[in-house]
Design a protein that fits this description.
The protein is α/β, with parallel strands linked by helices and about 260 residues long. The chain has a single domain, classed as 3-Layer(aba) Sandwich (Rossmann fold). Helices cover about 45% and strands about 15% of the residues.
């Protein structure tokens, strides 16, 4: 299936993890990509992987901090300038932050996590939805988290910001459905990305792999998710095949968030 043939898709946080996986999937289906990340080296590595899998893919990269609204405006403008429109937007860039109980969670750290995970998503929505409304079509997928639909502990900034992403998703989906625009969110659980690896290393730097094995035992599927599994879900939601799904938050966590 070439569901993205001729379509313009922006992906933030494209330099690693879920953003890279989604970019690979969309590129294989002939999407025209604007890849955004603060990590220029990561973006180059993503482009190299895409070119190996889809040599004819049309790609541009934009180095940007999503917490800076002017830089968000710029990546949106670059996508429109190069491809003329925006058909899909994976509003994905985010950070975990340090792990601490609420009373010990640094105020500066809280502000930093919220600025990237929540403000960055808001800025992306603000500027992309304007373009999609004028087009009369488009699909957005925001990256929330199971930490946005339940408590996870020791992550005040992350939980607050991801709950905020859920609220923005539902609100914007209700606002923009009438213009032919879908706004949904995914809520990944433990997917083996560099962010999750870093989280495990915060728990136990010396034995993080063993911590990981213990971490997934409560999961009904007894394993971590794979980035490509998330990339396939994102592609489905952006592709047009999911046209009547709107304002939804879809867990992809092996069923763990439903388990009592």
């Amino acid at each position: 299936m070439q569901r993205f043939s001729g379509k313009s898709v922006i992906i933030t946080g494209a330099g690693s993890g879920l953003g890279r996986a989604a970019a690979l999937q969309v590129a294989k289906e002939e999407g025209r990509l604007t890849l955004v990340d603060l990590n220029e080296t990561g973006l180059k590595e993503t482009v190299e992987e895409i070119q190996a899998a889809a040599p004819d893919a049309e790609i541009q990269t934009v180095t940007a901090n999503v917490a800076d609204e002017a830089q968000v405006q710029n990546y949106v403008a670059e996508a429109v300038k190069r491809f003329g429109r925006i058909d899909g937007f994976f509003n994905n860039a985010g950070i975990e932050g340090k792990q601490n109980p609420t009373e010990d969670f640094g105020s500066d750290e809280f502000a930093k996590v919220v600025s990237v995970n929540l403000n960055g998503v808001f800025f992306g929505l603000k500027h992309v939805l304007k373009v999609m409304k004028e087009q009369g079509s488009g699909a957005v997928v925001n990256t929330a988290s199971v930490g946005g639909i339940r408590g996870v502990g020791n992550q005040s900034g992350y939980a607050a910001s991801k709950h905020g992403v859920v609220g923005l998703t539902r609100n914007s989906g209700i606002e923009y459905g009438q213009y032919g625009v879908q706004v949904n969110a995914i809520a990944p659980g433990a997917i083996m990305t560099p962010m999750v690896e870093g989280s495990l290393k915060q728990m136990d730097p010396e034995n993080w792999e063993e911590v990981g094995k213990q971490f997934v035992q409560p999961n009904p599927m007894k394993r971590f998710g794979k980035p490509e599994e998330v990339g396939q879900l994102v592609a489905f939601l952006l592709s047009g095949d999911a046209g009547f799904i709107n304002a939804a938050v879809i867990p992809i966590d092996g069923g763990q968030s439903y388990k009592y």
